[in-house]
């Protein structure tokens, strides 16, 4: 089959690779019908995630048709149309039982590396380096999925691939980030980053009762899209963000602030990733993370900072004094996708949110290397690329 593979920093290519096989009786093979490129993939492209190996298949946002199941798979059948949540749940451990599937205890077969860096290993993730399990990803024609009964989510009749594809990650991610904002009716929420995650964060904040949302970015198409979701906007290259946020909130600051940026893919960023982790393929420069720092500084006293943006190693210059003395709450995490699937599917069916609106590029798998570049540099007005393998 064809698949998109990582070949080193800033190098991905479509290659012919062996078809995936059922390895465990709980596995299922999915013929991928749609897959997307995520801001998190850019961290792999940029070499910020340790333990990538030449030839690893990328992709954690994918869906398709089940074509083969292991002999212990009961709930999922050949022919089912499914979306595949990016974090892998075993369905049985304490975390899965408590609906915190991105923290699953059993789905990461390489926990040691993550434990060195983070103290505990989070769940396995498709196409996301060996620190999260080394699973082959879904930017491919076929993918092996594991613990199929606990993970594969059947698509209700009548919904198109494009309507449900983002249930795999970014729609629940925006929603969980908004939930983390602890929104009280009428609150003002500021969102740093109007990429796909920030945009779904905006839409979700309104669904959860925000009165106003203020989006901050520098790309006109993204700011425009944010406005179309009902947000007010600040261009951080043209305006003084901190001052503007104060002005727009009567001097107090937003009630909650989201960092939907994470490791910037083309910023001038900060650094000091753990030396302990020798597999780190690139050392972060020393000014990151702008957005997290700005979020902490801009949030009103007693407010909440929600961080869907992905971080990996260590970051310095975090204003921990502001954090403590303003009495802020910080909420973050890889998204517990499974928890939100029914809620968000209902919102899609009812038309409360139209996830397809953010798609700017519909391409084939062969176009993926180009798609990575336009998405990374936000060229051609790129907001979200969907690939048809
Ligand atoms: P993206 O790269 O398309 O969007 C990031 C946006 O942030 C860009 O529009 C960029 O211009 C903007 N930006 C950069 N620096 C900024 C700054 N200082 N202030 C304001 N805006 C700034 O990526 P995306 O797909 O939207 O993903 C965003 C983040 O969410 C990434 O870090 C990604 O890894 C993370 N993510 C997390 C989860 C999770 O489970 N927590 C899931 C998916 C994605
Ligand atoms: Zn993603």
Automatic annotation (TrEMBL):
CDD domains: FDH_like_1 (cd08283)
Cited Gene3D superfamilies: Medium-chain alcohol dehydrogenases, catalytic domain, NAD(P)-binding Rossmann-like Domain
Signal peptide: none
Membrane-spanning parts: none
SUPFAM superfamilies: GroES-like, NAD(P)-binding Rossmann-fold domains
Source organism, top-level taxon: Bacteria
GO molecular function: oxidoreductase activity; zinc ion binding
The entry's keywords: Metal-binding, Oxidoreductase, Zinc
Record flagged with keyword Magnesium: no
Keyword Oxidoreductase: yes
Alcohol dehydrogenase-like C-terminal domain sequence ranges: 196-264
Domain Alcohol dehydrogenase-like N-terminal as annotated: residue spans: 25-156
Names of the cofactor(s): Zn(2+)
Similarity annotation: Belongs to the zinc-containing alcohol dehydrogenase family.
PANTHER family, sorted: DEHYDROGENASE, ZINC-CONTAINING, PUTATIVE (AFU_ORTHOLOGUE AFUA_2G02810)-RELATED, ZINC-TYPE ALCOHOL DEHYDROGENASE-LIKE
This protein's name: Threonine dehydrogenase
